[in-house]
Design brief:
alpha+beta; six-stranded mixed sheet; three-stranded antiparallel sheet; 11 strands; 29% helix; elongated
């Protein structure tokens, strides 16, 4: 856990909320974004992450305490998709490896490479078709014949030629294969009903904090020139469900997130209604966060998710 640089007092709604050992609430820290950089770990090619950089030394600009959102849920997902490779494609891939090895043996003589590749190609085809019945061998020749005709601009597919001749189709050997990871998104909604002038000011400050923190910057902190040449990343947010002064013992953990969308309905009563100082009587703030990095198996062993259901 990195050292934390704390901001001033937290913005809290409702302002009368008393936090004791049985109070559940959502704690949000506005933190400075830190890019992952270009370095990799020692002895491997695992790139550093924004999440890791932020946690190594948090620069907390503002803290916000809000009640538990309505409709609380989480969704974890990974990308799996159908993939197929018929026997001829797999055999061709194996043969290609053999051809590459053959080419390397005589790389100094072009004609020798061609002769060796031709010989190796025939040997690979004979190896693949050895022991097959005559009908299957003919269908394989039809398949490769259609491939060859395609060189001359024919649009006939190898599969359709085999099907026309024999009524058979190549077994696609379909599998569901892992394709990659996905980033999690979290939509939260909060209703504000100010009951005093002080609470009205706090609500205004909370809304303004989210708006300003999610906005990009045209001036890099500490820079004396070059305004407008580059755009600095917005601040990001650390969200944590808490019970009293500790992490919530059951609910899920979230990685640092970017606030991608924000909406505020200032007339949630169905009509525009305000107090004497023009503060809307009822407002709804909708926030849409997305984590900076995917969740991996190893994340469930870190201290951030040691309690509760994990990520």
């Amino acid at each position: 856990m990195g050292r934390k640089k704390r901001a001033g007092s937290a913005l809290r709604y409702p302002i009368t909320m008393r936090i004791d050992g049985k109070t559940d609430y959502l704690s949000i820290n506005v933190v400075e974004y830190k890019p992952p950089g270009l370095r990799t770990g020692s002895g491997n090619f695992v790139q550093s992450t924004s999440t890791g950089e932020i946690r190594r030394g948090r620069n907390i600009k503002q803290s916000i305490i809000l009640p538990m959102p309505v409709g609380l849920s989480d969704t974890n997902a990974v990308a799996w998709d159908e993939d197929s490779a018929n026997a001829l494609e797999l055999a061709g891939a194996e043969a290609f490896q053999d051809l590459v090895k053959a080419a390397k043996l005589d790389s100094g003589n072009f004609q020798a490479v061609v002769d060796r590749v031709t010989t190796q190609g025939k040997a690979s085809l004979e190896k693949f078709t050895a022991g097959l019945d005559q009908n299957t061998r003919e269908n394989i020749l039809r398949y490769f014949g259609a491939k060859a005709v395609g060189v001359f601009g024919s649009t006939i597919s190898p599969q359709s030629l085999v099907t026309r001749a024999s009524g058979q189709v190549l077994n696609p050997n379909m599998e569901l294969l892992f394709k990659g990871v996905a980033l999690r998104s979290f939509p939260f909604s909060f209703t504000f009903t100010p009951r005093s002038r002080d609470e009205s000011q706090v609500i205004k400050a909370i809304i303004r904090t989210f708006k300003t923190s999610m906005a990009a910057k045209t001036t890099v902190a500490g820079s004396t020139g070059g305004r407008g040449i580059f755009i600095q990343s917005p601040d990001v947010f650390e969200l944590e469900f808490r019970r009293g002064n500790k992490k919530h013992p059951f609910l899920f953990t979230m990685k640092p997130m970017a606030l991608k969308n924000m909406g505020v309905n200032y007339s949630d009563t169905g009509a525009y209604t305000t107090y004497e100082d023009s503060t809307p009587v009822k407002m709804t703030m909708s926030l849409s966060f997305t984590e900076l990095n995917p969740v991996y198996h190893e994340d469930y062993q870190d201290s951030e998710s040691s309690k509760g259901v994990g990520y």
